[in-house]
Structure formats: C-alpha cells, structure tokens
Amino acid sequence: MRLAELSERSGVSTATIKYYLREGLLAPGRQINTTTAEYDEGHLRRLRLVRALIQVGRIPVATAREVLGHVDDDSLGRTIRLGAALWALPQGAEPDEEDPAVVAARREVDRLLAGLGWETARELSPLSPVHRSLVVAVAALIRLGYSWDAELMAPYAELMHQVARRDLDYLETHASDAERVETAVAATVLFEPVLTALHRLAQEEESARRYGL
Amino acid sequence: MRLAELSERSGVSTATIKYYLREGLLAPGRQINTTTAEYDEGHLRRLRLVRALIQVGRIPVATAREVLGHVDDDSLGRTIRLGAALWALPQGAEPDEEDPAVVAARREVDRLLAGLGWETARELSPLSPVHRSLVVAVAALIRLGYSWDAELMAPYAELMHQVARRDLDYLETHASDAERVETAVAATVLFEPVLTALHRLAQEEESARRYGL
C-alpha cells in the first residue's frame, strides 16, 4: 500500500508517519521510484504499536525506540523479549533501601512470590523493574499505616494471574511470534487503562449494592 | 499530640504539615496557647490521605482539596461521597463523540453493563467520568484494530468486581463512616499501582510458564 492508504488504515496522519520514519520508529517502505514507497501489513501493525506507545501510553520517543528494539530482537526468547519491552516502559520512582517501609515491603513481596510459586518472578526479581515498582507501591501503603502483607496480597495476585491468563489467551489468537510480542506490549499499555476504569466502576457498583447511593 | 509527634507518626515533615494547614487540606489543631496546638487521630488519618493523594497519586493541591471536600460532605450517602471523590480524581482525555471508535466503544460498554447487571453504573453513566474513561480506553483499543467488545470485556469486568469486593471487605474492617470514605479514596489511589505491578508480574510469570524464558 502507499503512504496515503497506510495513513487512512492506521488513523495516523502522513506527517506523523514521516516523523516516525525519520525517528527510526518505523522501517522504511520498499522504494518503487524516487518519490514513492510501498508499505505492507507489518508496517501497519508496527504503526499501531508506535501509536499505542506514544499517543495512548504517552511514552517518550526515545523510550519507545528502546521498547521496539527489544520487540525486534529475534535472538531472545519470547518471555525475555516481552519482559525486556515491559522493563523499558516507565516504571516510576526507585525504592529507598534505607527506608524501613521498603525493607518490610520487599520482605512481604518475596513471601508473596514464594507462597504463590511464581518461580520466574522470583528468579528475575533482582533485575526486574516490575518487581521494583511493586515494592515501591506496597511500601507506600505500609508507610501510610495500611497493614499490607503477603496474605492480604495473595488473593489480589491470584486475580491478576487470571487476568494475565486471559491476556495471553487473547494474544494466542494472533498469528506470528513477532506479532505476539508486539501485541503483548501494546496490550500492557492499552489494557491497563481499561482495567483501572473497570476497577473504579466495580468499586462504585459494589458500594451501591452494599450501602445504597 | 503536638506537631512534632504528628510529623513523626505520619512521616510528613513539619514544614509540609504547615503548608497543608495553610492550604486548608488539614483542619487546624486545637489551640492550647499562642504557640502550641494539639492534634488528634483524625488529623493523622487525614494527613495520611493527603499524602497518598499528593505524594503517591501526584494529584495537584487544588484537586486534592476538591476530593477532600467530597469526603467531608456528610449530607451525602456513602457511595455518592466515594463516587464524588473518585470523580474528582484526574480522569484523562474527553471522548470525541464524532469518532466512530468512540461510538462503537460506548455501545460495547453499554452492552457490557447491561449484561453484567451493573445497575448503578448504568444509571450514573451519563454523569460518570469513570464511565467516560472506560469508553476512551476501549475506543483506543478499537481504533488500533483490536476487536474489544462486550463479550471479551465481561470476564475482565467480573475479575475486577472480585477485586472491588475484596477492597470493600478490607475497608469494612475500618471503624467509622468518615474513615471508610477516606480509606476508600486512599485505596483507589494506592491500590492501583499495586494492581498494575501485579498484573505485569503475572504476565511475565504466565508467559514463562507457557513459552519458557
């Protein structure tokens, strides 16, 4: 397809597509003559991912380039590619290891993962920014006087595991391996606002059922 | 307790407490003499909520003041107070009603709520910014070519309903009505980063189990 069709099918303006091409976020099309290039379904899929990261996820261009580099790295296994791409996403503040709330949070998160038998998550924990943001989030709760421990978190983690299983079931309806990693990254960025909104809506609904309006 | 103890027990510096007092986010203590005021457990609880909103949730001071106004409004029922406080939180972009993806998303969200029997959520939908952000998030998925419809969302919504039930069970271990609304608001701001981190961690774990590293 030509640039105009790529723009129409992706909903991204031709000016923005040209910007993504210049920034190396999208591979050049196959040059037909000096003024015309041809794009394929792979370009369309990549453009949707770039748009998800930048326009919906509000991720900086440099970060998006790093995420895409991991998605494209065929030398890695699928979980590592997914992990590396997730890890390149913005993760928030670093934990302060001197803080007693951080120490307590790390202990409870470790107990949680051991109790759940999440072996990969335990194995990757010294490296993983995802693990680190969980520690930071739990430390914030502990510091504010909420007694969040492994036992309290376990049912939440089980529910999130069910959500993750559905995510991967959904991804498995997609064809190629490259597409799956791409879709998984887009899914993380795009599903999270849906989950957050469903969570708030469910809080209201459940509150109304228990206590009335 | 005196200002120094309030600072120590809340982990908020005395300078920051004085700033919150000046901004009207915290009610003045009971004046004992011209230089000393006495604070109680209500001050401590409120200070934790203010800190959750501003330091963890990164919510602007003016928005925090609005949220707290709803929390304090005794003339309203509990769900409405919770809802009004949730609604005052930043909700992201407004949907563009001319956009076919927004029209499709709104139709699927309406079908979802009808199918689930979430009557309060349906009733409040023309007003609710939570409903609006769900429409925006689903529209983003549809625009990028993901076929998200009511049937696909229903199991996610059921899981989030289970999460919300746990949230409220946890809140019911807390005593007073005022405290429950306060805690519910803090919970929304503070639990969301935990849920997000657990979701990403579960995605990695499940991916490793299915496809190896």
UniProtKB/TrEMBL annotation, chains A, B:
Protein keywords: DNA-binding
InterPro entries cross-referenced by the UniProt entry: DNA-bd_dom_put_sf, MerR-type_HTH_dom, MerR_fam
HTH merR-type domain ranges (all copies): 1-70
Chain segments annotated as transmembrane: none
Molecular-function GO terms, alphabetical: DNA binding; DNA-binding transcription factor activity
Pfam family membership, one: MerR_1
Keyword match Repressor: no
Signal peptide (residue range): none
Keyword Iron attributed: no
Name of the protein: Transcriptional regulator
Upper taxonomic lineage: Bacteria, Bacillati, Actinomycetota, Actinomycetes, Kitasatosporales
